[in-house]
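Customer escalation, tier 2.

The customer says the design service returned an amino acid string that "doesn't look like it belongs to this structure." They asked us to rerun it and document both sides in this ticket. The original structure tokens are below, unchanged.
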């Protein structure tokens, strides 16, 4: 997974969400495949892991709809959750 300093200076990111480590890694891999700029904030220290377990992903704000769809496919591959009303034009 990428860190914030690995993103080009001209890319502005927004919070995609907090995910389990397994989901976060899978979403990150698919964002890479799709060419969506992202960075991840994962708990790294011993004490941090006591209260923070999620991996937070931040994506290029111009690709937010695409990133949400990628995340949705990872979390809900069967489509049981439906669509996000925020993604409608």
């Amino acid at each position: 997974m990428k860190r914030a300093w690995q993103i080009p200076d001209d890319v502005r990111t927004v919070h995609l969400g907090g995910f389990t480590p397994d989901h976060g890694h899978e979403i990150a891999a698919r964002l890479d495949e799709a060419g969506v700029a992202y960075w991840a904030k994962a708990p790294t220290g011993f004490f941090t892991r006591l209260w923070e377990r999620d991996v937070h992903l931040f994506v290029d704000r111009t690709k937010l709809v695409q990133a949400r769809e990628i995340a949705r496919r990872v979390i809900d591959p069967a489509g049981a959750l439906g669509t996000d009303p925020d993604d409608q034009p």
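Tier 2 assessment: The sequence is consistent with the input. DSSP finds three helices and three strands in the chain. The chain has a mean pLDDT of 81. Sent an explanation to the customer and offered a walkthrough call.
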